[in-house]
Amino acid sequence: MNSTLKRAAVACLAMFALLMINVNYIQGVKASDYRDDSRNQRNFFERYAVQRGRITAGGTTIIAQSKETKGDFKYLRDYPDGPLYAHVTGFFSPESESAIERSENSLLDGSSPDLLLRRSIDLFTGEPTRGANVDLTLNPKAQKAAYDALRGSGKRGALVALNPRTGAILAMVSLPTYDPATLSTTDKGKVFPLYDKLAADKSQPLLNRTIEQTYAPGSTFKVVTAAAFLEDDSSRDGQTVVDAPQVLDLPDTTADLPNYGGAACGAGQVPLVYALERSCNTPFGKIGMDLGWDKMQEQARKFGMGEQLAVPMSVAKSDFGKQEEMAALAQASIGQRSNQMTPLQMAMIAAGIANDGKVMKPYLVNKITDSKGDTVDEADPSELSEAISPETSAKMRQMMVSVVQNGTANLAQIPGVQVGGKTGTAETVQGRAPHAWFISFAPAEKPEIAVAVIVESGGARVGDEATGGHTAAPIAKAVMEAVLTK
Question: Which of the given ranges, 112-116, 219-223, 251-255, has the highest pLDDT on average?
Fold first, then answer.
């Protein structure tokens, strides 16, 4: 080979090498830049080319689906009863998605490795790719009852209902809400400004308060303090007498702890069940200090606080708070100070007490099926922790039933059904009404549902009773009735 041919061959090899390097660089390194470039319309149209799977509640109620259109986009997302399920389904916008639409996206759009066999069969038969269907654990009757009752309060708030025996989420409602259909159209010029408007809204309609927001739990947390007290000595029960001063002297501070509204709690000493019925502050503040931070923190942890949960959407961590002085511990033991809980966490506490002390891992996805109805995956309930012994659980259930029958939660009573519950009033910033809480379960002898509800700034003093019983308890009652009425 003469020198001219050699040079030509080397030049060709060099150019070929450069070409291969460039191709790999573009496809491997720069691919995401080109894919995400606003000028690239291919992915935008492909986003709507596949028929996403349905999202259903209770096996039959369709809460999200893709409908075929005659325009430039083959399928568009549709949300029957959109605001009712918005914080569960989420939205499917031109460039993003949220909630179940995000967490189950690869299944819904058919790209998941779990659907490889289905895609292969469809390719062989010539059928178009379709996404898997996601069935949720939600009970449509409970969801509607929660939505209507919470809206009736005229306030912002949240409600979570669980099946205590499995951890299945039966209802998940956050208010205010929004219509996911308005964020799921293909017109970016309308969707993006609307999203920005919702995101800037001070009432935070895009926020799922059930799992993304923590609050001081107020007196509902007294069930955790009571449980720690009973676990510390198995001989104790609801009739064990505890100190109940009108004002609890807190060490190293002049800000002592009074009962709600400055009321007395018996004659200085009362049975534990009476303190829970009347939601007295001083007995539980003293119990917390007597037990100490380690025991209180450990009991809180056993109920799931501090766990990183996903349902499958990520859940904000609940936290009893860091170790501080004894006065702070007393405040945390009655659900104030740095004590912060999600509504889901408070529902887990009620469910754990109801379920013989076992806290089940909460979950929202019941079943995944492919486009032909074949099962791809199915929920497998699992235990998260054993928070308390079965003996302590029985004592706590009995006391919480007494709170509903004889105490601050009488508005949660359901004829013919024993209901257990605990009210709560959580102080917020000065000048604002307190949050109203209620946690409950029913029927007490064999619980089928556990509920936690918070009404933001929903407290309004009525006599000397904890206001959660007047504002939040009737909401929980409506949801429990919806599940228990066959």
Answer: 219-223
Please give the model's pTM, rounded to 2 decimal places. Answer: 0.88
Q: 389 catalytic, yes or no?
A: no
460 forms bridges with which residues in the sheet? none
Residue 184 makes CB contacts below 8 A (sequence gap 6+) with 76, 77, 79, 91, 92, 93, 191
7 φ, ψ to 5°? Answer: -65, -40
Cβ(100)–Cβ(90) under 8 Å?
yes
Question: Closest Cα partner for 180 from 109, 107, 69, 102?
Answer: 102
Q: What are the residues whose beta carbons fall under 8 Å from the beta carbon of 101, sequence distance 6 or more?
A: 55, 64, 77, 89, 90, 91, 92, 108
What angle in degrees, to the nearest 10, is found between the helix axes of 282-291 and 326-333?
120
Q: Return the pLDDT at 13.
A: 82
In terms of Cβ atoms closer than 10 Å to its own Cβ (0-12, 13-18, 19+), residue 410 is middle
The pLDDT value given to residue 29: 59
Phi, psi of 147 (to 5 degrees): -60, -50
Active-site residue, selected from the candidate residues 219, 279, 371, 393? 219
- Confidence band for 9, pLDDT divided at 50, 70 and 90: confident
Contact assessment for residue 159 and residue 393, using Cβ atoms and an 8 Å cutoff? no
Q: By the 8 A CB rule, do 77 and 66 touch?
A: yes
Mean of pLDDT values over 461-482: 78
Residue type, 110: G
